[in-house]
Design brief:
heterodimer; A: about 120 residues; mainly beta; six-stranded mixed sheet; four-stranded antiparallel sheet; B: about 120 residues; 11 strands; about 50% strand
Amino acid sequence: AQTVTQSQPEMSVQEAETVTLSCTYDTSESNYYLFWYKQPPSRQMILVIRQEAYKQQNATENRFSVNFQKAAKSFSLKISDSQLGDTAMYFCAFIPTGTASKLTFGTGTRLQVTL
Amino acid sequence: EAGVAQSPRYKIIEKRQSVAFWCNPISGHATLYWYQQILGQGPKLLIQFQNNGVVDDSQLPKDRFSAERLKGVDSTLKIQPAKLEDSAVYLCASSLLPGINSPLHFGNGTRLTVT
């Protein structure tokens, strides 16, 4: 069974600053994908970024980037130039490859961006 | 394209009553998911449909929860009778195909409060 752990229940960052959200996971699978989802107060889960485990290069999407350490089973999200609209819950998620696999989410980190 | 539609947005019921949630996925999406998100936790998969067939319902409490996807389009999730611990946000998601290469699109969820 897979587990995903987010050890930071809440974080705060000032606008324009950089913040890093942590995520660790546990699996015996060798091929899998990792994701960061954003859930604003509207409750809709929005995909922020994804990383394939077989790729050594860290994924980047505009202001969002990840630090993927496969050996350490760590997958942190860095948000640069934080904006007020980044305020939301952030969930780390894991899925092994294969059509029968299902997504496992962490417990989330609440990020507050302040002026 | 129109997103995943869910209704109602909020629902308050007393324990032992019944409730139903509705989901209309993105047009053409063959795979539909229902997730339960309890406050302070990440979403947990309840059931996955491929067209109108059930792929995975291993975490669905079948003594009180039921779901159907008639004609492989809309889906309803029912709880009967409801318990206090069923208070949660129920998220519907859809994807073009099952598996990792087809991203999930989430609806805004239904917040259920059982009193």
